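Hello again, I could really use a second opinion on something today. For a while now I've been wondering how a particular protein folds. Please have a think about how the structure follows from the sequence. Here's the protein in full, and shout if anything looks odd to you:

***
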Amino acid sequence: MIKLNEENIEAFIKENKDKFDKYYPESNHEQHFIIKLYNKFKKIINIVPYLIRVFVATIIVFTISIWAWNSWIRKDRHEITLKSKIENIIHFKK
């Protein structure tokens, strides 16, 4: 088996240049290309449901972690509330 590298490919093309000039693609060449292209995109599209599941799981974990942090971990959770912060901003602007 011949290893394909740039030099071997160039040599092959130069040796068989006249054959490349006479060769015409098959009549269904475009159909073969479209089928291969469709199969390649089909593989990409098949991972989309998994990506959606990962996205949903990430949102759920993020929401639960924010809720847990706000409910149990945060040190000042009893001292300042969001309502008091908003009231301070409103009074500060007046």
